[in-house]
Input
Amino acid sequence: MTKSRGIRVRRGTRTEWVAEQQGRHFCGCGCGESIPLRPEHFNAGIPAYLLGHNSRAANPNPRQEPVPRQPCECGCGQPAASGKRFVTGHNSQGRPYSAETRRKLSDAKLGVLNPRYGKKPANYRGWYRTPDGYIMRRVTGHPFAPLGKMFEHRLVVERHLRKTDPASQYLIEVDGVLYLRPEIQIHHMDGVKDHNSVGNLHPMTVSEHTRWHQAHRHPHK
Output
């Protein structure tokens, strides 16, 4: 016994049917918009409503008695969906709070009155790993970090040079504070991008970094 393959039609019939019937069938909610037909509607049938418009109809299910639509209980005057008390998102507006109570509730969550004011989230770490594998730190007041973020390896070298070699050519003074020059590159000696110990980091100019990699090319496998 073979399985049924459905209605057998000649090639192109569905496409011709869509072209012929397109624009002749309208949404049953009364909005006046036509239902866009697709080839699968040839066998599955034409939908009665556009997507999401069934709730607009007075009686979306003819087999049941329609539920009358009531005005939203928040007081906005808009009609809620059938069987609903509020328009979507208006339920919080219907709470019986006076204007003075609403003001007090708002003031109780501002500034130092907020119990979370000045506290960092429990999962706050102050750093994250970039897709390239480097560690990015959040910093404040750094002249070369306008977005408040800087690579950890640059911060480590910067602090190390301040203490050990303030006259280093890799540093520049800004407003009386020494910072690592933005054009200086930091090389990880072992190639591990998140290994940011001082002994593994070496500051280089762009030309020095290029020459180092040319002299230490990995052998082809």
Summary: The mean pLDDT is 83. The chain has five helices and seven strands. The two ends are 60 Å apart (CA to CA).
